[in-house]
Amino acid sequence: MNSARSWLVWSVAVFAYLVAVLQRSSLGVAAVDASAKFDISASQLSTLAVLQLVVYAALQVPVGVLLDRVGPRALIIFGAALMGLGQVAVALAPEFSVAIAGRMLVGAGDAFTFISVLRLLSLWFEGRVLPQVSQWTGNIGQLGQILSAVPFVWILHGYGWMSAFLSAAAMAVLALVLTALVVRNGRDDSWRPEQKQNWKTAMQQLRDALRRPGTQLGFWSHFTTQSPGSMFALLWGFPLMVNGLGYDTSTASSLLTLFIVSAIVIGPILGILTARFPLRRSNLVLTVIALTALAWAVVLLWPTQPPFWLIVVLIVVLGVGGPGSLISFEFAREFNPMRSHGSATGFVNVGGFVATFVMMFLVGVSLDLIDRHGVIDGGEGGLYSWGAFRLAFLVQYLVLAVGVVGIVRARRRTRRQMHTDEGIEVAPLWVVVSRVLKRRGH
Ligand SMILES: N[C@@H](Cc1c[nH]cn1)C(=O)NCC(=O)O
């Protein structure tokens, strides 16, 4: 554990995840080319993107169950193979339906990667370093978005559609080969399910994992921390900045890069805090959510168009949501027996994606309603004016409120269970702070 070999295995696993993020984000940056190549409308294009994410989210729980049976190594390899095949299909697609099938394969392969890589960590690391490694894993993986925004786009525009997607497929093959050569399920690679399993016991294990308050705490934490940033980065951030605020596309792209850089810088700090204060992880999650809600409130309530520096602050804060969301997986790991880690992690991961879809959808519907009923005078911006975005983005607060209620309720039940099972009492943060102040004679 925590050896030089652990770090070698980790770097290959992170590379496999980074390559999965590259495959996932390669369609977004090729959107205009895809519309021209297949002669499709904007809604057909968004179907392509959404279907891929739906496949990803729908497979999380089944992949989690499988993970508890077969271990992470085989699944990372299988995922890379599916993504490679999918990208080859997209590269060679003579018509739109083949591209859809290809992107669905990419979504399926992607679904195998992240939770398997997370599962691998606890086979190679232990102790305080584990939350930090988990932060590094999630955040370094996001650099895959930069790979698709820069070298992938360069190949796409220099050498064409087929070369770009075949290069992406080649990266998946490289991840597959490196994983097969280097990654093992622990030192002796002797993965065995903790108890003999058939599908009936696996299903029972899944039900038990879903019922545990700690798993639910993870689900609601992921639901609430991941969604504002993902909704912004994956769909509405670009139109908001370009159409709503009038930034040019290169400024908007740089701001989206800042979103990733913010996560990479803040992730290790959150990793240290979670390792140092394990009983305060939900407070950290709630702080991240409060900061997000506050940053949006200042932007949306700004009397005129918000200044550039404020949008920069907003994006830095939104970037913290990614590292914040990684804390959710620690709840899954800590409050479940080893044999259910895969199922619990898969379920927790679903939370963030469900909330992201809901937010994306609600913002879209709100923009349409505002436009159709002439709620505000959007001026030249019309459907995507700053005034319209300002109202539509308020729907985020609905999703955040549902998530916060979920966190508070699940946390209460988790703490009650910790008290019953282990005699650990976790006092509310304000009680602890006032005790410390009193002790220091304030
Ligand atoms: N919340 C993300 C991970 C993350 C870290 N920093 C920014 N995002 C997550 O759950 N990802 C799942 C995946 O498959 O990428």
Automatic annotation (TrEMBL):
GO molecular function terms attached to this record: transmembrane transporter activity
Catalysed reaction equations from the record: L-lysyl-L-alanine(out) = L-lysyl-L-alanine(in); L-arginyl-glycine(out) = L-arginyl-glycine(in); L-alpha-aminoacyl-L-histidine(out) = L-alpha-aminoacyl-L-histidine(in); L-histidyl-L-alpha-amino acid(out) = L-histidyl-L-alpha-amino acid(in)
Positions of transmembrane segments: 46-67, 74-94, 161-183, 217-238, 250-272, 284-302, 308-332, 344-367, 387-408
Pfam families named among the record's database cross-references: MFS_1 (PF07690)
Keyword Transport: yes
InterPro entries: MFS, MFS_dom, MFS_trans_sf, MFSD1
Keywords: Lysosome, Membrane, Transmembrane, Transmembrane helix, Transport
GO cellular component, one term: plasma membrane
Bilayer topology term: Multi-pass membrane protein
Keyword Magnesium applies: no
Localisation per UniProt entry: Cell membrane; Lysosome membrane
Family under the similarity heading: Belongs to the major facilitator superfamily.
UniProt-listed PANTHER family: MAJOR FACILITATOR SUPERFAMILY DOMAIN-CONTAINING PROTEIN 1
Protein role: Lysosomal dipeptide uniporter that selectively exports lysine, arginine or histidine-containing dipeptides with a net positive charge from the lysosome lumen into the cytosol. Could play a role in a specific type of protein O-glycosylation indirectly regulating macrophages migration and tissue invasion. Also essential for liver homeostasis.
Subunit structure: Homodimer. Interacts with lysosomal protein GLMP (via lumenal domain); the interaction starts while both proteins are still in the endoplasmic reticulum and is required for stabilization of MFSD1 in lysosomes but has no direct effect on its targeting to lysosomes or transporter activity.
The protein's name: Lysosomal dipeptide transporter MFSD1
Lineage: Bacteria, Bacillati, Actinomycetota, Actinomycetes, Micrococcales
